[in-house]
Design the sequence.
């Protein structure tokens, strides 16, 4: 009953709040941060290596009622007894009264090494990269809410610990490059509402530290997860002024807290259907990276294969 009330509360919060989402192949779901520990228990009990392919469809609502529809292709491949390679390729479309667009989002590659997986206890470490598919300037002179890529090469690092269905993870994401975005905050066209976004000319995003705390439950073929994802954005993001100097975007540092809830159904041993919902309860003052979402809802399908170890 408590889980049901929590899920309804999350649904209601998603209608009124804005926050930084974690749907862009970022550190929040990298490595074991985004995988149920109960799945590892089942996988490790098998005699064969487990390979998984999945597809998901998510919808999120951003600033100025901009809608985002993302189809994501995912692969999780066991390459050793306790090591995994994960990849995610998002295809994102956005639509609003002013502008519509579509493109390939940033691609993530993550390697995970489990160092403990015994008697319900698990500990793993992961490292990876988020590879940009553009320099965040297509179309030109538009802010990052209209870009399908963040435009920077990011390093992902983290660790995850679990005991049975209780999971705690921490991840770090660091952008190595500034974007080629040329939006300067001025009015571009008649009827354009983007002039109220902060200047992101040659935008440089500061690092994130993300925590993921989740509780997973299983009931025969059904599963349920409830969690919280605090994200600390370290420092104010910066842009390049007309004089070639770096300037801070005041108010872009700070914390975001997202609540998450999800359900799963496993009709067969190799197939799983998932439904996930996320919504924020605490937000940063300014989010120039275009990741603002009032809610994100995702449905996905995953199929497992196996081969001899």
Sequence:
């Amino acid at each position: 009953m408590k889980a049901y009330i929590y899920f309804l509360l999350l649904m209601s919060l998603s209608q009124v709040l804005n926050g930084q989402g974690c749907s862009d192949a970022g550190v929040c779901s990298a490595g074991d941060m985004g995988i149920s520990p109960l799945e590892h228990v089942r996988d490790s009990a098998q005699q064969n290596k487990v390979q998984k392919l999945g597809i998901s469809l998510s919808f999120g609502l951003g600033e100025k009622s901009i809608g985002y529809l993302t189809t994501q292709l995912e692969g999780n491949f066991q390459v050793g007894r306790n090591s995994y390679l994960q990849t995610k390729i998002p295809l994102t479309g956005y639509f609003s009264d002013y502008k519509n667009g579509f493109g390939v989002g940033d691609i993530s590659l993550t390697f995970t090494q489990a160092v403990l997986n015994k008697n319900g206890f698990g500990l793993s470490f992961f490292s990876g990269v988020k590879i940009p598919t553009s320099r965040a300037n297509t179309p030109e002179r538009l802010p990052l809410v209209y870009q399908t890529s963040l435009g920077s090469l990011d390093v992902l690092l983290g660790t995850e610990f679990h005991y049975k269905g209780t999971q705690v993870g921490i991840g770090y994401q660091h952008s190595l490059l500034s974007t080629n975005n040329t939006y300067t905050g001025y009015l571009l066209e008649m009827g354009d509402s983007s002039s109220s976004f902060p200047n992101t000319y040659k935008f440089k995003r500061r690092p994130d530290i993300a925590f993921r705390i989740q509780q997973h439950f299983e009931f025969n073929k059904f599963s349920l997860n409830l969690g919280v994802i605090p994200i600390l954005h370290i420092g104010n993001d910066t842009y390049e002024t007309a004089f070639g100097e770096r300037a801070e975007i005041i108010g872009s540092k700070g914390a975001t807290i997202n609540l998450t809830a999800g359900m799963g159904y496993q009709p067969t041993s190799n197939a799983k259907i998932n439904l996930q919902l996320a919504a924020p309860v605490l937000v940063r003052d300014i989010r120039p990276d275009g990741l603002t979402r009032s809610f994100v809802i995702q449905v996905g399908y995953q199929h497992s294969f196996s081969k001899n170890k």
